[in-house]
Amino acid sequence: MPATDEELMLAYAGGDAAAFEALYSGHKGPLFRFVLRSVKAQAQAEELFQEVWMRAIEARARYKPEAKFSTWLFTIAHNRLVDHWRKRGLQLVSLDREEEDRPDRPVAEPAAAADYEPHRMLEAKQTLARFARALEGLPPAQREVFLLHHEAELSVAEIARATGANEEAAKSRLRYALSKLKEAVLE
User: Fold this and answer.
1) What is the pLDDT of residues 124-167, one digit of tens each?
2) What is the pLDDT of residues 20-46, one digit of tens each?
3) Which end of the chain is more exposed for a tag (fewer CB within 10 A), N or C?
4) d(CA 48, CA 51)
């Protein structure tokens, strides 16, 4: 029977390097996407991503499975991002302020099946571009909650725990984020 992430982390804390490899393999994609979409710069994301894993490695002896491993890991990521933004004089948890000076990034073209007609491909590309702009335009706290829910597949309770917010605030931020993203896509 496969071990849970929590069991793998406890095994790693006990010296099982293969357990860490399994954890890393299972969480590297969602964690990197979360960090990348939070900072929007590849080099910074790679550095922060490595720092999160280093902090997880350093904390292995203190790890206690009081929550899901992913909640614990994304709490480390959240805290590291807060530190990152504080050093730059920004706040991650702003609810009311929209980002004013967003550089427009090129959006990756969606893959299309061979039987798609050109107008459908154009519509899909435009929808993806609207979604990407809307995601970038979300207030940082809403974007973070959306990414934790979508990329890390955390529940509202787990998001609240990871970010240090109460459950009602996490639920509200997610609801607002989803509403804004849905509105942008349906334009």
Assistant:
1) 667 777 777 888 888 989 999 998 898 888 899 999 999 999 99
2) 999 999 999 999 999 998 888 899 999
3) N
4) 5
Looking at residue 9, what is its pLDDT? 93
Output DSSP code: residue 115: T
The number of distinct structural domains making up the chain is 2
Candidates 6, 161, 143; CA nearest to 71 is: 161
**Strand, coil or helix: what is 154?**
coil
* Domain-located, residue 101: no
The answer, as to whether pTM is greater than 0.90, is no
The one-letter amino acid at 86:
R
What tokens does 176 get? 């607002």
Residue 125 parent element (H or E): helix 118-137
Report d(CA 135, CA 56) in Å as an integer.
Answer: 28
